[in-house]
Amino acid sequence: MNRQKILIVDDDPVIVKAMSLKLASADYEVVSAVDGSEGIAAARREKPDLILLDINFPADVGFDWDGFKIIAWLQRVDEAKGTPVVVISGGEAAKFEKRAIQAGAIAYFQKPVDNGKLLVLIRKTLDAAAAKPA
To answer: 0.85 cut: is pTM over it?
Structure first.
């Protein structure tokens, strides 16, 4: 049986490493990206079952990515349409949570993330997706 794949898009290598280890120990395959363009490319190439996405990214040369722009792009990319997105952010929850859900995220987690609650949400989301007829 193939392991379910999770894409982490976050510019903080410590967050990526910690989440990758936690997800791998829960038997998920993990792919990561450090910015919006890399995240979109990884979503196209890897076709993840779920995406964990930060909101804030440093300004990039040529294009200023943020998690909301990435969500909008993912919704237009055939390989990523319908892929559940969970926003993880160190930004102000009051400022970003409602906006993230309205943009299409299924949930919002404030950093530092409660890994137990995140894993429960991931498991429920992926189990529900697997139970749906194709």
So the answer is: yes
Helices vs strands, H then E, count in the chain:
5, 5
Strands 29-33 and 50-53: unpaired
* Better-scored residue on pLDDT, 39 or 131: 39
Q: Output the six-digit token pair for 46.
A: 């890897």
Which tokens sit at 62? 């040529």
pLDDT tens, position by position, 42-89? 999 999 999 999 998 877 655 677 899 999 999 999 999 999 999 999
**What distance in Å separates the CA atoms of residue 37 and residue 127, rounded to the nearest whole number?**
29
Using an 8 Å Cβ cutoff, are 84 and 51 in contact? yes
* 1: pLDDT strictly greater than 70: no
Handedness of CA 2, 75, 87, 125 (dihedral sign): negative
User: Structural domains in the chain?
Assistant: 5-131 (3.40.50.2300)
d(CA 77, CA 12): 25
